[in-house]
Design a protein that fits this description.
The complex is a heterodimer of chains A (about 325) and B (about 300). Chain A has about 325 residues and is α/β, with parallel strands linked by helices. In chain A, about 40% of the residues lie in helices and about 20% in strands. Chain A folds into 2 domains: about 160 residues, Thiamin diphosphate (ThDP)-binding fold, Pyr/PP domains (Rossmann fold, 3-Layer(aba) Sandwich), CATH 3.40.50.970; about 130 residues, Rossmann fold (3-Layer(aba) Sandwich). Chain A is built from 13 helices and 12 strands. In chain A, the strands form 2 sheets. In chain A, strands 2-1-3-4-6-5-10 form a 7-stranded mixed beta sheet, sandwiched between helices. In chain A, strand 8, helix 9 and strand 9 form a beta-alpha-beta unit. In chain A, helix 9 packs across helix 13. Chain A is globular and about 60 Å long. The termini of chain A are far apart. With about 300 residues, chain B is an alpha/beta fold. Chain B has a single domain, classed as Rossmann fold (3-Layer(aba) Sandwich), CATH 3.40.50.970. Chain B has 12 helices and 7 strands. In chain B, the strands form 2 sheets. Chain B has a 5-stranded parallel beta sheet, sandwiched between helices. In chain B, strands 4-5 form a two-stranded antiparallel ribbon. In chain B, helix 2 packs across helix 4 and helix 4 packs across helix 11. Chain B starts with 15 loop residues before the first helix and ends in a 5-residue tail after the last helix. Classes of the chains: A alpha/beta (about 325), B alpha/beta (about 300). At the A-B interface, helix 4 and helix 6 of A face helix 6 and helix 8 of B.
Chain lengths: ~325, ~300
């Protein structure tokens, strides 16, 4: 059954839920687990269609992850859904030993990542999960940008063998892809070409980066290139370096701490292979806060405006510190 | 290096078909438990680290499982309908390694590589490195949840009638909250093919279980969670076998709380605090322990020969 692309703003978690239900249809070995958040994570769509393969463990995330280990070690392909804060935080040790260390084909569908979940506040706003999961050996980290990419990421996850952490969000999110993409590809897509600065975003920050690029062009005549990083680990460094080689300066944007997240991933690649100024939009040494999702994003500067402002600061620095690239097109 | 001389043991363990045909007798199982204990002492003497006392307390349970109760086949280790053994108390890995090696999952010589760089026997069971290990363990509290997952997968595959999951837990496992999440889930999901054996040896790293964090009546706890729960003497082979074999007929989660002694079989270590995870196995200690265990083995072998056939 061909999946239907969404054109109106839709949460990424809905893409996960829809694709998971479709996976259940096409693959008997897919099982789903949830920890009393199945409506929120959208795993309920699978649960309603395949009740015999759906296990709601209640508020017991550690148990869920270790159960998934047992299921996967016995030939099943478990999808574990809960909020990102519990998936990566509370159940870290269970994910680490039972899933990542064992290289088991378990998929963690971590919903409500970042601060855009809003009102529930700091206790629920997970802003360090990408860092935790990047640090975990053998774990792949996927953060789709919109519904359509979230659907593809989930569908494609079945075809891969490695353990995967997939981060989804709560709010309806404007589309970045007009259709459901055929593949995640390298996990780094160039959505908009430009020569002056690279805006490298992930998840909910990608559509904002595209908006920021529009405003930079309209207000400053700056041609920004926009990259969507949907696979944060392993980061496909070639695409990132190619863009840095062209523009010589970048801003990263993520709904996450700048420590350990996309900013660090990009800076690590750049520092070793093509050092250029890289500014970051993300959370500093601080926890989340209650408010509407959008108000929370505003509060932490996780907006198109925030990205554009950082870009302007970075552009000031560019002629001072940029050097001819070590590889790629010559700096002009 | 007297402790490295092989155990005189001309008779290999019975194969699956033989075990199904004629179950090994209690006295034979007791003797196998001694063989496994001897292997543990030898391994730890060479490795110079590891948990000997915790391995010895589980020796009778592990021997009963691998030599009689478990439906497993070293010649076909991936057999889908096999029983699953999960050493939730992963720190007792040596006792499982001994049982696996004795059954031919890997050569006996591998035992002497325990905890050494480049060898396949890790400090805690590792499913990616060691044949016969179903899931990696070593972080207490996770094992019973893994057993629940395995049990559910077997049920989905229509194998739950025959394939049973046996998890061996420590008292430390019962201090971890996750064990009780798993205990709740096993009953809620109606996992029909799971047995949890608690090796309740009452000693842990920082002292007695009663001093450190008293988990009290573990049998009553499992019962309150809806499990069938019995308490046995974990060193009485007859009781161990009976409880294990009964548990797989129940078609509901079954707990066996086995009262054991840490270091059982080596009198210098039995029930004594201070050995857990320490490099207690000096060459002298190992030599004494082996002497004692060899004497036990000799007695058991002799008794077996005199006795011939008989009870099962």
């Amino acid at each position: 059954m061909p999946a239907e692309a969404k054109t109106e703003p839709t949460p990424t978690r809905a893409g996960y839920g829809d694709a998971l239900a479709d996976l259940g249809e096409s693959h008997d070995d897919v099982v789903a687990l949830d920890a009393d958040l199945a409506v929120s994570t959208q795993a309920i769509k699978f649960g309603k269609k395949f009740p015999e393969r759906f296990f709601n463990v209640g508020a017991a995330e550690a148990n869920m992850m270790s159960m998934a280990c047992g299921l996967a070690a016995t030939g099943k392909v478990p999808y574990c859904s809960t909020f990102a804060v519990f998936a990566a935080g509370r159940a870290y040790d269970q994910v680490r030993l039972g899933i990542a260390h064992n290289e088991l084909k378990v998929r963690i569908g971590a919903s409500h990542g970042g601060v855009s979940l809003g009102e529930d506040g700091a206790s629920h706003q997970m802003i360090e999960d990408i860092a935790l999961m990047r640090a975990m050996p053998r774990m792949t980290v996927v953060v789709p940008a919109d519904y359509n990419q979230a659907y593809r990421a989930t569908a494609e996850s079945y075809e891969r063998d490695e353990p995967m952490y997939m981060r989804f969000g709560r709010p309806a999110t404007p589309g970045v892809y007009d259709d459901i993409p055929e593949t995640l590809g390298t996990g780094v897509d160039v959505l908009r070409e430009g020569k002056d600065i690279s805006l490298i975003g992930t998840g909910h920050m990608v559509w904002r980066a595209l908006e920021a690029a529009e405003s930079l062009e309209a207000e400053d005549g700056v041609e920004a290139e926009v990259l969507n990083v949907s696979i944060v680990k392993p980061l496909h460094s070639e695409t990132v370096l190619e863009s840095l080689g062209k523009t010589g300066v970048a801003v990263t944007a993520e709904e996450h701490r700048v420590v350990g997240g996309l900013a660090d991933a990009v800076r690590q690649v750049a520092a070793e292979q093509h050092p250029v100024p890289i500014f970051a939009v993300g959370l500093g040494d601080e926890f989340g806060i209650s408010g509407t999702g959008e108000a929370c994003m505003e509060h932490f500067g996780l907006t198109a405006r925030g990205i554009a402002d950082r870009a302007r600061e970075a552009l000031v620095l560019k002629p001072i510190v940029s050097r001819p690239p070590l590889f790629g097109p010559e700096w002009t | 290096m007297r402790h490295l001389t092989p155990v005189p043991d001309p008779k290999p363990p019975p194969k699956l078909a033989e075990r199904e045909e004629a179950k090994p007798r209690i006295a034979e199982l007791e003797r196998w438990a001694t063989v496994l204990r001897i292997d543990c002492v030898r391994m730890l003497a060479v490795a110079k680290s590891g948990h000997l006392d915790s391995s010895l307390s589980a020796a009778d349970i592990v021997a009963a499982l691998y030599y009689r109760v478990l439906r497993h086949d070293p010649e076909n280790p991936e057999w889908p309908a096999r029983d699953r053994f999960v050493l939730c108390k992963g720190h007792a890995a040596p006792i499982q390694y001994a049982a696996l090696a004795q059954h031919g999952y890997f050569p006996l010589e591998e035992l002497m590589g325990l905890r050494q760089i480049g060898a396949q026997l890790q400090g805690h069971p590792d499913m990616r490195r060691t044949p016969g290990i179903e899931v990696s363990t070593g972080s207490l509290g996770q094992g019973l949840s893994m057993c629940v997952g395995i049990g559910l997968a077997l049920r989905l595959d229509g194998l739950a009638e025959t394939a049973h999951v046996f998890g061996v837990l420590s008292d430390g496992d019962c201090q971890e909250g996750q064990t009780w999440e798993a205990a709740t889930a096993a009953v809620h999901f109606g996992v029909p093919n799971i047995t949890a054996i608690v090796d309740y040896n009452h000693l842990q790293t920082d002292g007695t279980t009663e001093e450190v964090m008293d988990i009290r009546d573990v049998r009553a706890k499992f019962e309150a969670f809806g499990w069938d729960a019995v308490e046995i003497d974990g060193h009485d082979m007859g009781q161990v076998v009976e409880a294990l074999e009964r548990s797989r007929t129940l078609r509901k989660p079954a707990a066996i709380v086995a009262q054991t002694k840490k270091g059982k079989g080596v009198s210098a270590m039995e029930g004594r605090f201070g050995f857990h995870g320490k490099a207690a196995v000096s060459p002298e200690f190992a030599a004494d322990a082996l002497e004692e265990l060899m004497a036990t083995l000799e007695e058991q072998t002799k008794a077996l020969h005199e006795e011939g056939g008989g009870e099962s």
